[in-house]
Amino acid sequence: MPGAKKEDIRVSVDGNFVSISAEVKREKEEKAGKGERTLVREMYYGSSSRGFSLPFEVDEKQAIAKYEDGVLKLSLPKKQEASSRTVQIQ
Fold first, then answer.
1. pTM score > 0.85 for this model?
2. In the sheet that 17-31 helps form, which strands lie side by side, from edge to edge?
3. Around Cβ 66, how many Cβ atoms within 10 Å?
4. 47-62 in b/e burial notation, b at 16+ Cβ within 10 A?
């Protein structure tokens, strides 16, 4: 996700569905020397989002997201299946 800041990226997990979205805002202005006259002003605003389903449910409490050098790394551990147990009749 080059160009996006860490605080502008959002990752959400709902069961086995993972959603990633980011909003990018960039502004660039070039002045003409000491006269403070603006020559060029560029503004870019954009957003992107992706979503995908996994073949297993994700343990939201164990999920980790790291963002370094424009690369978002997700660790999405599989949710442990509920263990079945036998209930004795009283």
1. no
2. 9-14, 17-31, 38-53
3. 10
4. eeeeeeeeeebbeeee
Q: Convert the pLDDT of each residue in 11-65 to its tens digit.
A: 999 999 999 999 988 888 888 777 678 778 888 888 999 999 999 999 988 999 9
Tokens of 59: 């343990």
Go through the domains of the chain in sequence order and give each one's CATH number: 6-75 (2.60.40)
CB atoms within 10 A of CB 36: 7
Res 44: pLDDT: 86
Report yes or no: 39 and 2 within 8 Å, Cβ to Cβ: no
Please give the full DSSP string across 5-22, using - where no structure is assigned: -GGGEEEEEETTEEEEEE
